[in-house]
Amino acid sequence: MARGLLRKPGAHAAVSNLELFFDLVYAFAITQISQFVRSHLGLNGLAEAAILFFAMWWAWIYTSWATNWANPDAVPVRLMLIGAMLASLIMAAVLPHAFDGTRDALVFAGAYCTLQIGRTLFVVWAMAKDNPSGSRNLLRIACWFAGSAPLWLGGALVSARGAQFALWSLALAIEYAGPFAFFQVPGLGRSSASDWEISGSHMAERAALFVLIALGEGIVVTGTAFADRAPDMPRDLALIACFAGSVLMWWIYFDTGAERGAHHITHSQDVGRIARNAYTYAHLPIVASVVASAVADALLMAAPAAVASPALIAATGGAVGGFLGGLALFKRFFSLRGLLPLSHVAGLVLLAGLLGACRFMTFSAIAFTAWCCAVLLVVAIWEWGSFHGGWRERYARWRAA
């Protein structure tokens, strides 16, 4: 009965139209998260936003793993994905009020647990005949999600906001530890990296598409803010600065990183482990930083001529720092020497100097954003020159002459 539900082992798993349709819900979820951050700029609000983001990312990335194995052209898989899409939409819809009261918190937690456990058990069934070891792997994963479910539901039922945050944090800590513990379950043993064999090109493409979705949020925020008010010089400059930041983030990720990462995972003998480390975990700070940049864009467009506020400095600096740091970790996985890219390290040093200067100097909002864009530009030019410009060869020829 389950035959035909799986993709062909070892074959390239193309991203389906249904998966792209599924991602539309997460475009909405990213919008909801960025709006939540803008409405809760204090430390408590940022911590709560992090919990919500981690949950949404975990729901999306596990679905990406599932569709790497399951064939979206099969009707049962399509129905599963549509159900997962509905659960994700419910989560995104109530997300802004997930910490405001029992009802929305319970809806969010219930939809999350239903999605994670239900989708995983479906893949357990789908893989049972053709891939028994893979089915047992998914059964262990389902047990980990079932183990964290009481914490999600218990957190939704408590009245104290701090207790809810603590329980949901513990639930996520358990779930995020699962892959590193190889989903050890008494009686079922533990998984191995060979149980995670997937199409590397599919995982790389899915992650890249999610980065594009996150970048799109910044474009939407900037364009909407610009259209809502009459243009003037500060607003025009702010629009250019926001657009430049999005373009530079796109360039640094896609010019060499995305392609080299896809090539590395596709030709690796340890695809599952790379998919876990480089895409499941290392992409989390990359996407979170792009979302933070959308928040920074909104703050800039709201008051482009004002002095850079602590919130704008934190959002813009955090976005650039998190993006370069996360991307450096990602690129380290396919570095020949296993080292962090020097261009990204230099960018982080320049950013640290800029943030240090903010303690002694006053920047306008536009000026601070422009300087952060300059940091990204240095990284982009440095990396492009290293891989495309042939600077080292030209310098060697010049020295030889």
How is this structure best described in words?
By secondary structure, the protein is an all-alpha fold. The protein has two domains: 17-196, no CATH class; 200-394, Up-down Bundle (I/LWEQ domain), CATH 1.20.1410. 77% of the residues lie in helices and 0% in strands. α1 runs antiparallel to α2 (43-69) and α7 (200-228) packs parallel to α9 (271-281). The chain is globular, with a radius of gyration of 22 Å. The termini are far apart. The model has no long low-confidence stretch (mean pLDDT 89).
What is the secondary structure topology, with strand pairs?
Layout: H1 17-39, H2 43-69, H3 75-94, H4 102-127, H5 132-157, H6 161-177, H7 200-228, H8 233-266, H9 271-281, H10 283-302, H11 310-332, H12 342-357, H13 365-389, H14 391-400
Helix pairs in contact: 1-2, 1-3, 1-7, 1-10, 2-3, 2-4, 2-6, 2-7, 3-4, 4-5, 5-6, 7-8, 7-9, 7-10, 8-10, 8-11, 8-13, 10-11, 11-12, 11-13, 12-13
